[in-house]
Write a structure and sequence with these properties.
heterotrimer, A alpha+beta (about 400), B alpha/beta (about 300), C alpha/beta (about 220), A: about 400 residues, alpha+beta, ten-stranded mixed beta sheet, C: about 220 residues, alpha/beta, Rossmann fold, five-stranded parallel beta sheet, four-stranded antiparallel beta sheet, globular
């Protein structure tokens, strides 16, 4: 008895039919599993980070944009608030306030301006190099470093916001001083700088040659007793180095400088509640959010869509299964003569059933294997797929 | 619908579990941190000598205060090396003077959760130094680098407030030592306020008497005690240039001062020069760095004694 | 070898019926069955093979009373003891020549496929002059080669009886002779008998015995 061998011979002989059948079954099985895999990963990615971020304060507006930007460094740009928002929380004594400024990019990776406290809060450990120390330095997430091929001592230049932004932001050549350990979160894909460095990128802080002691006459427009007017030729540093760091300075009050959000880590449950209460007034321009609630809402919506998709997939699956049954029934009819022959030779009905079963078994198991392989491939990329789909 | 419900429940379960886990972790970190460091002194880094003095007076044996600026460098203009920045970042507590003191602080990354700006409480009372030159470039227009005045502690009532901020930070870090810290702080505050009253009483006789400050570092002293002074840019260890003499003469026309206040003992040629202009010298050491002898309090007491002849 | 007594059979529908009072075939006897269509030649083969069962009567083949076996036992008996050769060869397109020859071994557990069977299949194929074509599929073979492969399949289990249902019907005269030679050789060399339904009257004189259904009609002989 060699039903599997005969079935295998039959299947390989009818290659096209087999390929079509396997493809149909594979696809119809793959779709719901892949979807589930993606959803599990997105839930894991989105929720774990949301849950570990107690509160977020930002400008009033889309709660989702705010959370997506400050937790996952997505492309959404919530309206900025001022540094005062962070000081307000510090001064309340209710929570630790970690300012976040996620606006700029460097070679496709988000530049996250924040405070040292963020690294403690997220448990980010420097794998090689050292933590941020001086203005103009950056520490890079594990995957960003890998993809940009960066090591401590290399340089990374911030991307101009737009090509024609000539008057505003000068690209800043940042010094990579450290690489963080891999955390399998959005932190792996970010370039971290001190908040003040982010402000330098924005042009709020800058360095220049000491104008009073200018030697090159073409640089000076007008010099009077109390004022030296310099031409625009005056070189704006695109790199902060030991030599020029003393000339870097911020104009005006840094308390009104922009940030995109503040992560508030309350000292205890009660402080968190009190803090939330302080943002309830109608005149309030800021909102305070529990990211877990916002992400929960997002996931609810995704699950609702998933249910619809599940329904569609099950209808399609039913149709496919019926078509497959039809294919088998038709092939049985085509093989009537063969069945007659082996029947005459002396084989039992059970054997014929076994032959068919072996054929179905082979087709289904190859589909399962193929589907498994495809799911493994998807699994490899779920992290990035989820980023692509939900975070952008 | 049932499916949806299940998912919701699952999520909220997951959510709750994770919260618990986070809370547990935080509790462990907290317990771990306090357990491992409860006996060892708090590692404190400061940016000037007065804060070192305050922290040591309040903390006593429970603190180890590091002030890495060399004795011959003005802490205002000192810049730390990367390794020293790392040491600051690692400290349990970083005490800043605020008010723009130690410019390097604005150019490095420090963990704010462990950083205390001791003058933040009275930031609405910050003073600025008027610089003589402005400059402009690009589209931004004219701006002067008129920095903030930073020797806040020369107004001893403000020094007491800074000491209080130090006390608050220490008490938060080591709640179990709060009573000791409180007693030490009250003793320090008493010393500072006694000195404050003493200056006030010294000055009260003739507080309108005009004087010259050799350097623009006495804004808080002048404001706090109502002194009538104008600043020039003289260094105690340098002979005044003819330009500086001329500038002083110009100032004296409008401001007939008979005393110049110095940060440290001036060289003889300078005092001789001043004598010919009818100006006597007195030293009021801001004590930003560790004094060669004595401590913050004794230096300040000597400073007050040095002021007394002016208002007699 | 074959003993048939008082056999009666009729299909449930239609009015065809077959009755044979007595028919005996000796060992190594080569018998031809001739007669016009519809006279029951194939029905006789099917009755002997146990594919259909008689209404009455006894069929003995090599000592086994086939007519008294149950369905399962009849199948086992058929696949082990009877070699069937068909007019249309009835090879499976999706198997190569070798797999076609081995096919009976793969669809029953009454036969055991081992190395010696493989070896014998090879020898049979060589004897039938298709030894160089065992990896080909039936569609790549000529008609004569196809029938030779079918004969190999019928002979491999070393049957006690070979039933040939117009085995030469679709072949050219040259191949007809060859196939008949091969079948006769097999009967002579092995301990088996041949019962062949045929329309090829020019071949009849080579058989030991000819049964003409026209002479006996539906009433048997």
């Amino acid at each position: 008895m060699d039903s599997l061998y005969l079935a295998y011979r039959y299947i390989t002989y009818n290659r096209i039919k087999t390929v079509v059948l396997v493809a149909c079954i594979t696809l119809i099985a793959f779709l719901p599993f892949a979807l589930q895999l993606l959803l599990d990963e997105s839930e894991r990615q989105l929720m774990s980070r949301a849950v570990s971020t107690p509160l977020i304060v930002g400008a009033k507006g889309s709660a989702l944009d705010l959370v997506m930007n400050s937790l996952y460094f997505g492309n959404e740009r919530p309206e900025t608030i001022s540094m005062e928002a962070a000081n307000r929380i510090w001064d309340s004594g209710l929570a630790m306030a970690i300012p976040m400024y996620t606006r700029f990019q460097a070679r496709g990776f988000p530049i996250v301006g924040t405070a040292m406290d963020y690294f403690d809060f997220r448990n980010l450990r420097v794998a090689s190099g050292r933590p941020l120390a001086v203005l103009g330095e950056c520490v890079v997430g594990a995957r960003a470093a890998e993809e940009l091929n960066l090591e401590p001592g290399d340089h990374l230049i911030s991307s101009p916001e737009s090509l024609f932004d000539l008057a505003g932001v000068y690209p800043l050549k940042m010094k990579v001083v450290g690489i963080f350990d891999r955390t399998h979160t959005a932190d792996d894909l970010a370039v971290f700088v001190d908040l003040k460095t982010a402000w330098v990128i924005q042009g709020l802080g800058h360095g220049h040659q000491d104008v009073i002691q200018l030697k090159d006459p073409t640089l000076v427009l007008k010099r009077s007793e109390s004022n030296v007017a310099a031409t625009a030729k005056l070189y704006h540093y695109t790199e902060i180095s030991e030599k020029n760091i003393d000339s870097f300075h911020f104009h005006g009050n840094t308390e009104v400088y922009p940030i995109s959000a503040v992560i508030a880590v309350p000292t205890d449950e009660k402080s968190g509640t009190i803090l939330q209460g302080r943002y309830l007034s109608k005149e309030e321009t800021q909102q305070i959010l529990r990211p877990a609630n916002v992400i929960d809402g997002l996931l609810q919506n995704i699950f609702r869509i998933k249910n619809v998709l599940d329904a569609v997939v099950s209808v399609v699956a039913l149709a496919t299964i019926m078509a497959i049954i039809l294919v088998f029934a038709l092939s049985l009819r085509l093989r009537q003569r063969e069945i007659q022959t082996i029947f005459k030779i002396g084989c039992s009905r059970l054997t014929i059933a076994k032959l068919l079963a072996a054929e179905i078994l082979i087709i289904v198991s190859s589909s399962a294997a193929l589907c498994g392989a495809m799911l493994m491939v998807v699994h490899q990329f779920t992290h990035d797929l989820v980023r692509m789909l939900f975070i952008g | 619908m049932n499916l949806l419900l299940d998912f919701t429940q699952e999520i909220s379960m997951f959510h709750r579990q994770s919260l618990h886990r986070v809370a547990l972790c935080m509790a462990f970190v907290f317990i771990g941190a306090t357990a491992s460091t409860a006996d060892s002194p708090l590692n404190i880094y400061v940016v000037n000598y007065p804060l070192k003095y305050f922290a040591e007076r309040i903390g006593g044996p429970h603190v180890k205060v590091t002030f890495p600026v060399p004795a011959d460098v003005d802490p205002v203009y000192w810049t730390p090396e990367v390794a020293e920045i790392g040491a600051y970042q690692q400290a349990d507590l970083i005490l800043l003077n605020g008010a723009g003191y130690a410019k390097w602080v604005g150019k490095v990354s420090l963990p704010r959760s462990r950083t205390i700006d001791t003058s933040r409480e009275f930031k609405d009372r910050y003073l600025t130094v008027k610089e003589t030159m402005t400059h402009s470039h690009g589209a931004k227009g004219k701006h002067a680098h008129e920095g903030p005045a930073f020797t806040t502690w020369l107004d001893l009532s403000l020094a007491a407030k800074q000491a209080e901020a130090v006390f608050g930070a220490l008490a938060r870090k080591r709640p179990q030592q709060k009573d000791t810290f409180m007693a030490n702080f009250l003793s320090l505050k008493n010393d500072l306020l006694t000195l404050d009253s003493r200056i006030k009483s010294v000055v009260s006789n003739r507080n309108t008497v005009p004087m010259i400050f050799s350097h623009p570092v006495y804004e808080y002293l002048a404001k706090g005690y109502g002194l009538n002074g104008r600043s020039v840019h003289w260094e105690p260890d340098q002979e005044p240039s003819p330009g500086q003499i001329t500038e002083l003469s110009n100032v004296l026309e409008m401001h007939p001062a008979q005393w110049m206040i110095w940060e440290g003992p001036p060289i003889t040629s300078a005092t001789e020069n001043l004598k010919t202009m009818g100006i006597r010298s007195a030293v009021f050491d801001p004590c930003g760095n560790v004094p060669p002898e004595g401590d913050f309090l004794s230096v300040m007491q000597r400073n007050v004694s040095n002021l007394e002849p002016i208002f007699r | 070898m074959i003993q048939i007594n008082d056999l009666e059979f009729h299909y449930p529908t239609g009015n065809f019926s077959l009755s044979i009072r007595a028919l005996n075939l000796a060992r190594k006897e080569k018998t031809a069955v001739i007669g016009p269509s519809g006279t029951g030649k194939t029905t006789l083969l099917n009755l002997i093979a146990g594919i259909i069962t008689p209404d009455r009567g006894v069929i003995h083949i090599a000592g086994t009373e086939v007519s008294r076996l149950n369905d399962n036992a009849r199948r086992r008996f058929r696949i082990t003891s009877i070699g069937f050769v068909f007019q249309d060869f009835e090879l499976l397109d999706y198997l190569d020549v070798m797999d076609n020859i081995l096919h009976p071994y793969r669809i029953t557990d009454a036969l055991k496929l081992d190395a010696s069977v493989h070896q014998r299949a090879g020898m049979l194929a060589t004897a039938m002059s298709i030894g160089d074509k065992i990896k080909r599929r039936p569609n790549d073979l000529s008609q004569g080669e196809k029938q030779r492969a079918a004969i190999c399949r019928a002979l491999l289990p070393q049957p006690k009886l070979i039933l040939a249902d117009e085995a030469t019907g679709n072949l050219d005269p040259e191949n007809k002779t060859k196939i008949l030679d091969l079948l006769f050789t097999a009967v002579d060399e092995d301990d088996t008998s041949l019962l062949a339904v045929t329309h090829d009257h020019e071949l009849l004189d080579r058989f030991d015995r000819v049964i003409d259904f026209r002479d006996f009609g539906n009433f048997g002989f």
